[in-house]
User: Fold this.
Amino acid sequence: MEVHPNQLPPQINFILASVKDVEWYIGDVTELLTAGYDLRQLIQLRIAGAHRVEVEQRLIVLRLTLAYDPIGEGIEPSVIMAYTSEMAFEIVNFSEAIVHQEGDNYTVPKPFLELLVSIMISTVRGIIIEKTANSALKTLYVPILNAQEVTQRVFG
Assistant:
């Protein structure tokens, strides 16, 4: 059965094979808080990511970075918080689900990639909430992100 890059095959069977913390950083915001700054007014969310297909292992691996960067010049630290996670999804029916282009090039159907990105965003939000629970950043939250927009903007 041939799969088109913009549509899903009838059924894709997959499991979340692994979740890895790649990077975790919290900047020292003591001076900002002491000066009376509201961190929620000082930050902007930065999102970066990539994905790769590992054919022999039947995996789609997503890497997502969510970071809070300060708005404005001269604010220290230069990054308030950054978290990068890598998640591997094992595709049970790989040959039915992933589009083989030429040579080593494979394409994940866009609706399926959006589903995986949605799962990853939700998981990363929870991990960040847990990691910041006992810190000065506990009042910061990761906004609800639209998986379609993130997929289009970050994962192409």
About this structure: The chain is about 30% helix and 35% strand. Strands lie at 14-26, 43-54, 59-70, 81-91, 99-100, 106-107.
